[in-house]
Amino acid sequence: MKHQDIFEKNYGVKSKFDRYNFRSNVDLDATSMLNIRIDLAGRLETRVGPGSDFSNVFSVITTRSPSSQPVFNPDGTLGAGSALEIPFQQNPYGIVTQSGYYTRHTNVMSGTLSAKHKLDFITKGLSAQVYFSFESNNYQHTTRLQSFDSFWYKGKDATGEAIYQPHSVKSRLSTTDSRWVERYTYLDVRLNYDRTFAEKHQISAQLLGNRTLRSQNAELPYAYQGISSRIAYNFDTRYYLEANIGYNGSENFPPKKRYGFFPSFSAGWVLSDEKFISLPSWIQLIKLRGSYGTVGNDKIGGQRWLYITEFTPGGTAMGTYQFGVSPQSVAGYNESRVGNKFVTWEKSAKGNVGFDLSLFKDNAVQFTFDYFWEKRNNILTTPGDVPDYVGITNVAPRNSGKVENKGIEAELRFNKRINKDLSIFANLQMTYARNKVLENDEPIPAFDYQDLRGYEIGYVLGYKSAGLFQDEEDIRNSPTQSFGTVVPGDIKYVDTNKDGVIDAFDRVPIKVNNVPRSMSGLSLGVTYKNFDFSMLMNASTGGTAYLYTYPSSKINLERWTAENKNARIPAAHSTTNNTVVTDHFVQNTDYIKLRNVEIGYTLPKKFLSSLRISTARIYLNGQNLAVWDKMWLKDRDPESAGGAALAYPLQRVFNIGIHVEL
Questions:
Q1: Alpha-carbon distance values, 88 to 32, 80, 81, 370 (Å)
Q2: pTM confidence score
Q3: In sequence order, what DSSP letters do the residues of 506-541 get, joined into one string?
């Protein structure tokens, strides 16, 4: 849709995105014992575009039916409504040319300051360090909006005159402005020790105290602080031991439960370096390793000070209490959140065992394998089993959730120079993980099949689809569905408890999230003389998404009709029956993607020497080149699918360029 010239003529601005970056890194040896590092970075951005925001423009375009309106009426005015739809959607061309514009400024400044001083005069290998970092983000969003003239063309009257009904009328520009400021500061003081004894015994240790402050606009700063320590030992680069201890505090918890203790341990053994083990010459490295430890979490949905009970004005729906024989309204307060004085850290115990293997000359083949497990306890969970008769509607989160997670990770690498002209590489990665909810703070359901404990995260209760009703006889011969009147083409549900009625007791666990069980990636490359080629692919399996069509999708033309009874999409019938949670709209999001392909040619040095150029390479690459998936809705990316809203389409990008070094 060509619009830039009209947009610029109307408002004197151009759609644009400007960015300016600044970076400065300074390392200074102030003395032979003191090193100072100062790093600064800044970014200035300005975005200008039509309407209130580009995302709004895209939403308006994708959430309308194709028959909602013409862009222009026969007389050239902007259209509103059509013969099939009364006007309620904004004209997209009007939005991008005549509805005003937005200006968004983003200013980001960050920096780090570090001073490290050697303390060898106390003992060799000892040093002290102070580290400070900050980040300041400032956002300003200004919109200057107006309505524009649009008309509903209703055909012609008896005399042949066109009928135009005004829908919207042009107004003056109105200005609104919003600002957002975020600031982060981090400070730590470290005592480091690193020393080798008798050439084979290496010891390193660290003691660290830190404090973090984060503020947003006028809110009180978010505060965290703690101390940690680490000690590591290795003998002859064969045996490795390490221990870590963290003692961290969060503002979210009551004073006596504010700090959590989080230890971790790890060990490694380079088996291939043992003299008592005889290995073939083609085995270069065998290393065994393992670790175990705990970490903590204090966050849940942005809520703060979970132990504090909050009060807000008002008691009844009218905001007052009634007193006296002749009731009088008296202002008061009620509990908007009941604090939890026992709330504390969510903890996760994690373990990992694995090995590293290198084979053949120059470590041409390398293989890494890990088995990991995790058990999360005291998960901060919104209470779900508080009875209604208690009269508490908003209880602070409590430490009642439990989840376990297990999986494997593996990586296979191959890198080989065949001869002076040819070399190849390949890298294959794979991760597989399964989780299970052990406790979710929900009441025990009346039917065992509705208990979400034992299922993966992302399961919800919904109705199992049995297809679509084919005719009135099909409706009469099926259990009664309690979601309003149904017609042929509506979704038919399974009567799980066999009582002849489809209601809440027939819901079963349905996986609706797009978290895959396995992820894998493959990169390949070859270099022959001055030519090079590389590619990257990745794949995902075990994911699902709950999604359905958006109004302007052409697949709506394939809805159920009497002539199209094998359709996937229900009939065009406005009913609650077709909007309840159901597996009818759950789709498999498994995919394989060709992410990137690049070919290049490095110009010969004898050609470049006369130009005083060190190296020069010409390249052509493409990104997001292909995707293969199992979704029957092909209008969105399976990696970010979900819901009815259409995300901005994945773009296929091609680049051609030259990289020169002098």
A1: 74, 8, 7, 57
A2: 0.82
A3: G-EEEE-S---SEEEEEEEEEEETTEEEEEEEEEEE
